[in-house]
């Protein structure tokens, strides 16, 4: 009799192998990755600029300086105004929706690739891990760029409002003035922006990636986008 | 005693589309012996690809059983099915299905990565296979930089990466011109004769007739008839009017 050995179980691949495959993929799909990443960059840039702008405002108020264009409303209030809270919430929503959408598109256009990988012996979990790694990396790098752009935007706005005084009182580090609201400082805001971008990208891609990985390969490969 | 590699038992596949149910396979019973070259013939929409997917464990039948090497496929775990696809079967598709982010070499090594083969071994094997299909000088090209025939050669090399006992080909020549198609058929036939790989190929390419050991005619999800090689030769002779 020829080979009639029972079918063994597929092995789980070491993590570095997934890492390597996802980086190769990112490198070659660079152009497409940039477009996906741009969605994240925009969302985080908006969020970080609003937030930083707000902290700059507080820092300069704390310092006793008056904005050259202060309105009554703003001087009257301590710290974050309701308008600012609104803006931050709005920018968060823009961020979440934009990133989820980018990731959904990115996974959907790769259904065929997922089906093919499963034909070659990929486990469902491997496919999901590949996408989470790729999107996590895209999320982090996109968010970092976005956070830097957002900070730059806020600085330019601050310069316009406060002039060079901005740099004397620039809220780089966390501060907790006794009589004022807690300030995170720009460094922490950038960091939070990066982490948020990464987490949102991973969450945004996990659902479509998981769904795609569960499909029988024949289904996945039929999908034309 | 015949060594049966693939056996299907009353395989039915239904597709649900809204409230409509389409019966793509309507009770298929076939047995395929080890080392055979089988062609599934039939018009477009007759159910060839659906059967291909059932035999290759790329989808589950609605009813009935598929046995490969005596193993009932419906009883395998997810991990066993992945291992089955990885080791036992090589897939060749009409539209090649190469990963466009990986070079020819990268496509051929991927199934070996999944099989846990060391980097050195898989590089050697990929080079050997790509040489064999005539792409020794284009190993590091991306699929987009290759012609249709060359892409199908990469797909064939990839299908052979883990020494499968079965090669499944779904209309491998449908997107190719006559001469390139002929070359691809000859290449697949060579694997069959030289390496004893069982080949199951869906096709409506008549060029496939004279390399097949048996032809399974599929119509409307049913096996219409099964012809042996000698019967085919007689028919081809009759059609050609070359009876001596
Ligand atoms: N995933 C699917 N969903 C719905 N209908 C399908 C699906 N796959 C195949 N079909 C239908 O099943 C029938 C058989 O298709 P297929 O096996 O692809 O035929 P062939 O490969 O012989 O051309 C066709 O009518 C086709 O439209
Ligand atoms: Mg078909």
Word description of this protein:
The complex is a heterodimer of chains A (225) and B (244). By secondary structure, chain A is an all-alpha fold. Chain A has one domain. Chain A contains nine helices and no strands. In chain A, helix 1 (15-28) crosses helix 6 (124-162), helix 2 runs antiparallel to helix 4 and helix 6 packs antiparallel against helix 8. Chain B has helices spanning 48-55, 78-87, 104-114, 119-132, 148-159, 178-195, 229-240, and strands at 4-17, 20-33, 37-41, 63-68, 71-72, 89-92, 166-170, 198-203, 214-219, 222-228. In chain B, a hairpin with a 2-residue loop joins strand 4 and strand 5 (71-72). Chain B has a single domain (34-60, 78-242), classed as P-loop containing nucleotide triphosphate hydrolases (Rossmann fold), CATH 3.40.50.300. Chain B is α/β, with parallel strands linked by helices and 244 residues long. Chain B has seven helices and ten strands. The interface between A and B is large, with 36 and 41 residues. The structure holds adenosine-5'-diphosphate and magnesium ion (MG). Magnesium ion (MG) is lined by residues 48-49, 170-171, 202 of chain B.
Number of domains of chain B: 1
Number of extended strands of chain A: 0
Q: H/E element string of chain A?
A: HHHHHHHHH
Main sheet of chain B?
6 strands, mixed
N- and C-termini, Cα separation of chain B: 36 Å
Helix count of chain A, per DSSP? 9
Return the average pLDDT of chain B rounded to an integer: 92
Measured by DSSP, the beta-strand proportion of chain B falls in 25-35%
- In CATH, the architecture of chain B is 3-Layer(aba) Sandwich
